[in-house]
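Dear all,

This email documents one entry for the complex benchmark we are building for the journal club exercise. For each entry we list the sequence lines for every component of the assembly. Then comes the predicted three-dimensional structure of the complex as a token string, followed by one or two observations. Please use this as the template for your own entries, and keep the labels exactly as they appear.
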Amino acid sequence: MTATAGMTSATSNNGASTASLLELRNVTQIFSSGPIWNREHNYAVNDVSFTLDKKPALITAVAGESGSGKTTLGRIMLGFQRPTLGQVLYMGNDVNRMNSGERKQYRRQVQAIFQDPFSVYNPFYKVDHIFTVAIARFNLAQSRDEARHLIEEAISGVGLRPSETLGRYPHQLSGGQRQRVMVARSLLLKPQIIIADEPVSMVDASLRATILETIRTLNHELGIAILYITHDLTTAYQVADNILIMYRGHVVEAGDVEHVINDPQHPYTRLLVQSIPMPDPNRRWIDMRGANDPPFTGIDVTQTMCPFVNRCPDAIESCIRDVPESYALDQTRIAKCFLHEHSGAVSDQNIASFFNIRDAQASHVDAP
Amino acid sequence: MSEPVLSIRDLRVYFNIRAGTVRAVDGVDLDIEEGEKLGLVGESGSGKTTTALAIMRMIKPPGEIAGGTVTLDGRDLISLTEPEMRAVRGNDVAMVPQAAMNALNPVRRIRSQMVDGLRDHGVNESRERLQERLNTLMAQVGLNSNVLNLFPHELSGGMKQRVTIAMAISHKPRLILADEPTSALDVVVQRQVMETLEDVRAEIGAAVILVGHDMGLMAQFADRIGVMYAGKLVELATVQQIFANPRHPYTRLLISSLPDTAGKRKLQGIPGLPPSLLAVPPGCPFMPRCPEAMPICGEEIPQLLGDPDLVSCHLHSEVVAA
């Protein structure tokens, strides 16, 4: 399998899918634990294929509970984690076989924003440090003045005032400011892709909106493709064009965010959506206590069953016999659930082929 | 009207640090009725958690309760001696902590931790009676009683949070303080834990103060909402009123910044930052960020006025005066 995959990577390099920036091809990540005679294998990511494209550059959300594999998926795309099976291709090149020059380019073009705006900083350095290191590493500026100019431009780009930000230590900034400085750092490098893992979960509500709006601007105005990893479906709905819902390593539903969240088709997505605490006292949680127990409650879920079978209120016999395939519900939606078997299995494994392409009204101006 | 369970008057909590005095809570008045669910919201540093800790008298140095009264069922907690206060904690006021993983002792089984809590408050019963009591508590929070035999690391986050709820209700307190009890949990589990909290609250008839910044959770749970800003309560109203007709500009901006799933729109945050609590400017603390600020806002601190819904904003002072 690896040999053929190597060949296809070479061919795609020559043309076929030029629009695709970063591609996951049948990626599986297995974390093993326990003694060798009783090894436990945890499928953090289970056979996921999808692409982040350049034209058009979209915002894709990845949502799911903790342990669903959403962060692992992000780490694989960032090249922090080498998948057990499958390939990660950046501009057609396998990121785990790149030479150092290619790798450096990839590192620059695919940037990360993490959850915790506290621990990403070294408290002994002023915040300027995270910019100057990046500038030196990638030779972005020829002089001090030029470097200063670049930094100020990036900071202004996220709605902060350089005079109030630079020259300060991380503890002198608020959580929201620190997180925006991280976004500014990404912006400085003018990347093609930003992978943001829970960027606002530790930030106050009043600042959350500002940061998400900044991320949206980066996409709309600079054409940066964004992977937004979150457990919060309301922010995913507001920010993203398309969404992947993950459960135990499987992408159980994916497609246009409007449809997935307002008309969920997989029972797990439905459960998630019903559990959103809506900021509206007139739309309180529907009382589901006393509802029928899932038919296969307590069953030991194995790799040959639907991963959600033990919690699914709609489970049928097929669900414990086999893992469902991804079925195409319509042009912009897939669900991995036997209830949709009649829709027919997808022919193209690439989840992104079911994405809704936003009207590219926003001008894709390259950063000056 | 019946006597409130808890009545807070002019509560002030100050932290004396080298740089000066941080006025974390600066003159809060609050009444909580029997069985009421009050949400206390605000951004980090607004004083919501400090207010809750002050009710429990758990402010640690360099912080101190600098003034005011906290009256629980007619008894002023601030003037109690430490041993008297110790008897109040757990028995009359109980806390459900934010991070359940840090609240439980990792090297002891759930059973022994729960027995500790009971014995410490004078429960002196036979093993069988005690076991019965623990089984009932576990059932109340929807856990199987064999959870008692487990260590905290063997439980999921939701189960751990249920254990802390079981501990909190074990003496049938009059008031439960829940400080972001679900902030570390997933939405599905969050919902289950909140439903459990509501069930046990209704069963023992306790009032709850839910501290947090998640307005969605507040909308789901609370009867009334108190909005804190820079150590002060700026608005206090029914949950319906807060969401349908917020009167303080801060509350209004906060509500409009919330994402929902009914159509995409431009997300609008609140520009600026809260003032440093070391040197709060004169006048209304929200004035520098307020889109509707008037000259008077920079000079005079607005009073928390109204009946029954309260707001402290000069835009609304004439309504009350009239």
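Observations: The radius of gyration of chain B is 21 Å. Chain B is about 30% helix and 20% strand.
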